[in-house]
Design a protein that fits this description.
With 104 residues, the chain is mostly helical. The protein has four helices and no strands. It has one domain. The longest helix is centred in the last third of the chain and has 20 residues. Helices cover 53% and strands 0% of the residues. Helix 1 crosses helix 2 and helix 1 runs antiparallel to helix 3. It is globular, with a radius of gyration of 14 Å.
Length: 104
């Protein structure tokens, strides 16, 4: 969410193409089939994003939150979606090492 906004700008308008907490929720919702990959969540309220987070968390809990325990089709979708997101983010100037330095 942009400062002062009460709605999410959508994964394609999100900083670094969605490499944010809210962007990750959207990607995970795509991975687990909660949302179609055409849904960017643009204009969603924080409450609606919280509900989506809870759905994603419930879906991940079914597999013990472990990538290795995901069914093959979900693993493949996970790898594809995250790989595509990282390529897009790097094209926008995203540096994962800089994000880690900011957190420390």
């Amino acid at each position: 969410m942009k400062t002062g906004s009460q709605t999410y700008e959508g994964i394609h308008n999100d900083k670094w193409g969605g490499m944010t907490m809210l962007g990750n929720i959207v990607k995970e919702a795509w991975i687990f089939g909660i949302l179609p990959e055409t849904e960017t969540c643009e204009g969603w309220t924080l409450g609606r994003m919280q509900n989506l987070y809870e759905q994603v968390s419930d879906a991940r809990a079914k597999y013990g939150f472990r990538f290795a325990d995901l069914p093959p089709e979900i693993q493949e979708r996970h790898e594809r979606i995250h790989r595509e997101a990282m390529v897009r983010a790097r094209e926008l100037g995203w540096d994962p090492d800089a994000d880690l330095a900011d957190e420390g």
